[in-house]
Amino acid sequence: MPRPSNFGKDTGLQVRMTLTLFLLGLIYAVLIGVIVAARALPLLIVVGGLLAVQFFASDKLALHAMGAREVSPQEAPQLHAMIDRLCVQANLPKPRVAVADTPMPNAFAVGRSPKSATVCATTGIMDLLSPAELEGVMAHELTHVQNRDVMVMTIASFFAAIASYIVQFGFLFTGGGDSDDDGPGFIVVILVSVVVYIVSFLLLQALSRYREFAADRGAAIITGRPSALSSALMRISGTMDRIPQRDLRASEELAAFYIFPPKAKNSVMNLFSTHPPMEKRIAALSRLESQLQGAA
Fold this sequence. Notes:
10 helices; 4 strands
């Protein structure tokens, strides 16, 4: 029996995404105003162009960065059959299915909406997990699609990236700051960009952690087996240290979109992780397992 179309929707997540977009729009408007006041119009044109590219082509860029390619049902029959079954259970339109040829065990979803979404699994995760565990992982990614949080994360990531680029390459857009008139304006643009980057980064971290909890919950509800996803997370975590460093470095830019972040370790850097600690995810899934068993 298909579950309702709003199975994975989380009111808390929707509120957080709305607030994040509002705050990002506000600080971005301030940044644009500063750029205009500083008469750095070429920079404004570049930023607008990059935003358009990010919004309409971010999914293709992400897949290309991972070396992923879309696969047909003939090329990956088991993966397609699993996605077909999960989409029926979740009452979702079937997304495109892609595979990335890398030993890193991971999966992610990209796309502006459920109709334009792509879910991707790596060869590493398909080799590592059992069918039930992989089903939990792919249900997690489909919940991201249902919640439309991929689009919000893409926009939030873009704001942080643009602010970072302005700080790093601002001199190129302002003629190097040689003119006395450009100097003060350039400094203000740089300072505001730093603030935009910090705020965007903090909002991105907070939203990213919450959306992972929401996707874990949605996956557990779709499959009815929270323990399978817990087992998958533990297997992925235990394998990540054995992945070649070049593969992990190549995946860092997409860390926020993976089900498990590359290089995740117990350290002070976890304070700035895009994902909640695995122990907390496992604990939340265990509580949900108990709730589902009690309702059975």
